[in-house]
Structures are given as C-alpha cells and as structure tokens.
Design goal:
3 domains; 18% strand; DNA binding; 18 helices; alpha/beta; two-stranded antiparallel sheet; five-stranded mixed β-sheet; elongated
Length: 398
C-alpha cells in the first residue's frame, strides 16, 4: 500500500470544518515533535528510554513549553536531563518557534516585507503575535550564512562572467547616500549559473572592481575566459590586470543607452534603427562598414554618439570572435540586469537602509529567492560547451 493511500476519503470525511482538520493536524504535529525530542535526548544521553544509564546523567522528567508553528500555538512536553545539558535542536532553549515558521519569516523578509508587515501577516495567518524584535533576531541569523557564502571557495575557471552594479540608498553618519552593490555571476563548466559574490561600495568604479576581482581570485578562480561588463571607464584594464587572458566584452545594450541618451525624441526611432545595423551585422567587417554609414548620416548632429562607438570599438565587438550561440549570451549583460530587476522587486518597499549590514542582508535574501530556479544548464549547453572546448581547450580543462 502506498503512503498516500493510508489517509482515505472516508477518514477525511470525519472532519466537518477546516478548524477540525487543523486541530487534528496540530495534535499529530505535537506528538511528532515530542517523539523527535525524545529521540534527541536518547542521542544526547547515549541510551534509550527504559534502559540503564551508562553514565551519571539521566532523564529527569519534563518541562511544559508553548511553541509557535505554521499551524499555530501549541503546548508540548520537553524532556529534561539531570545535568541540564540537553539543548534540543528542534526547539532550542530560549526559543519558542520551530524552524518551519522561521523559514516563513525569512522568506517574507526576502520578498521585501518590513518587520511590522511580517508581524501583521503572521498574526492574520497563524493567529498569534511575533514581535518585530523577534523577527529581527530571526533574520539576523542570516548574517552568518552571508559570511560563509562570501568566503566559500569558487571554481577554478568560469566560461563567462557577467558583472554589474545596483545602487541602493543607505544611511551613513546621519545622511542617506547612494551605495553600489557589486554583483558577479559566472557560467560554470557544467552550464549552470552561479552568483560569485556581493560587494558593497560607495560608488561604481574601476578601483573598487579591482578589489572584487582580487577577492574572486583569492577564493580559487584561476581564469575568467570571457567577461561581460558595462563601459565603465578603465574597467577593461582592471580586468586585464587580474586576469590577463580574459576577453572583455562591453555590453552593447549599455552602449545603445549611452548613445541615445541625448538624442531628441523625433530622431530617436530612426537613430536606434540605424544603430541596429552595427551590432546585428554578421561579421566585424560588416559592422565597421555599418558604423561608417551611421557616422555619415548622424555625425553632424550627434557626434558624441559616434565617438563613443569608436572609442570602445574593440571591446564592443569582441563577440564577433565567437560562434552565434556564444555571441547571444555575451554581447549584453541582460542576464545580470534581469537578476538586478528581481532584487529591485524584492527590495522596492525599502526606500533606504539603516546600515550596510541591512542592505547586504536584504540583497542576499532577495538573491537567494531569485536564483532558486537556477538548477539547469543554460539553453543549447551541449553546443556551447563544445564551442568553448574548441576555442579554449586547455583553459576550459584547468
């Protein structure tokens, strides 16, 4: 008989309301928690109930404790030992909440809800109060997770690494200032994406990116085959200083935005369509010819845009060195911009953050929610991997 068949339709018919079913489930949960606590004490004392104790410590009755779970409040019996050294993992001392509900609170916080909003949500859904200070204590536990995650070893090589920054308002010395959260996402040799880390700085700069890249290298990365970045001044040289063999592609979408920033509204559609002929050209030679045609038409009116293309030409056209499948995923930082959009969605309710730690915690939790589905290799991975093996054979196999 399958496990799901043990609960029959006839059995479920005995419950005439949702409250009756909830009461039954709470009773099952209570018994389950108490049995697990008994098991924890058995392991702590190193002998089973009704056996002779092999040491001086032994069972010493029970304490009653009110706990809060996803099914509401309930009273349980917590076994004691004579030496009072037993601290159960399921319901630790000085805690009245089980992991399931703590995970719910952390998830709500990750989705951008304030502590007071979470307090109200828990009260409405579960029927009991959780103070904002308790919510802060629960979410503060994430700090240890962040430290471990930020210092974890990384892969020796990433095929593509996308890098970008997202700006938050953070309070510092009684003022609210802009700070940039730097984010790097790497494509591993198994085709899966991985966020390499989060770094908070006062403003996006090549100098700060140098410290980010140095940290990445210190955690075990030996090579970044291709990097995709915005056109921050000096960024390419910064990457070359740390990873000399890396091919650096400036994001074409960033270039388009910068080029059209001061184009008047009536010209914008035609200007943008003409620019497509440059970055959609089949070869670098054809792209150069398209740039010349573009310049002849628009240089008299928007010379700064033409100059921007020419000044960044080598880094803007790196993608032409690769097959079409690789081109599509390196000529833009859309992947990381989409990730930034999801982080913004989760943090939009927070107009500013009180501390650096608060913005780091919120970003980390939002990131954890946003990347839950990063479990499969990217599309066309078999083809892309073979192309990388052909172009970078020795470096891919590091």
């Amino acid at each position: 008989m399958k496990k799901e068949d043990l609960i029959t339709d006839e059995f479920l018919k005995q419950f005439k309301s949702g409250d009756e079913l909830t009461s039954f489930l709470k009773n099952i949960q209570k018994r389950g928690i108490e049995k697990m606590l008994e098991g924890e004490l058995d392991a702590h004392l190193d002998y089973d109930k009704h056996q002779q104790s092999p040491n001086s410590n032994a069972r010493n009755g029970y304490n009653s404790k009110k706990i809060k779970t996803a099914l509401g409040e309930t009273n349980i019996k917590v076994p004691r030992d004579r030496e009072a050294s037993f601290n159960p993992m399921l319901v630790p001392k000085r805690s009245n909440m089980v992991d399931g509900l703590e995970n719910v609170i952390i998830s709500l916080y990750a989705k951008g809800m304030s502590n007071s909003d979470i307090e109200e949500q828990v009260r409405e859904v579960y029927g009991f109060d959780v103070s904002t200070s308790t919510i802060s204590r629960i979410t503060d536990k994430v700090t240890n997770d962040i430290v471990a995650w930020q210092n974890r070893p990384l892969e020796p090589v990433y095929l593509i690494t996308w890098m970008d920054g997202i700006v938050f308002k953070v309070r510092e010395n009684s003022k609210v200032i802009n700070k940039t959260m730097y984010i790097a996402v790497g494509l591993r040799r198994d085709g899966k994406k991985e966020v390499l880390g989060l770094w908070l700085g006062k403003s996006e700069s090549a100098a700060f990116w140098m410290s980010v890249l140095t940290d990445i290298k210190a955690r075990g990365v030996q090579d970044l085959l291709i990097t995709a970045t915005d056109n921050l001044n000096g960024f390419t040289n910064t990457i070359k200083n740390v990873f000399p063999e890396s091919k650096t592609q400036i994001c074409v979408v960033h270039q388009i935005r910068n080029a059209t920033k001061y184009v008047v509204w009536k010209d914008k559609k035609e200007f943008t369509n003409d620019m497509k002929n440059i970055y959609e050209a089949p070869t670098k030679g054809a792209a150069e010819a398209a740039l010349e045609d573009f310049a002849k038409k628009w240089d008299h009116k928007y010379s700064y845009a033409i100059k921007s293309w020419r000044n960044n030409w080598d880094e803007l056209t790196v993608f032409y060195e690769f097959p079409v499948e690789i081109r599509k995923i390196i000529y833009t930082t859309n992947l990381i911009e989409n990730l930034n959009g999801k982080i913004r969605k989760y943090t939009k309710n927070k107009l500013s953050f009180p501390t650096d730690e608060a913005v780091m915690k919120a970003t980390f939790l939002a990131l954890r929610e946003a990347t839950k589905k990063w479990t499969m290799p990217i599309r066309n991975w078999g083809i892309i991997l073979n192309q990388f093996l052909t172009i970078f054979e020795d470096r891919v196999r590091l």
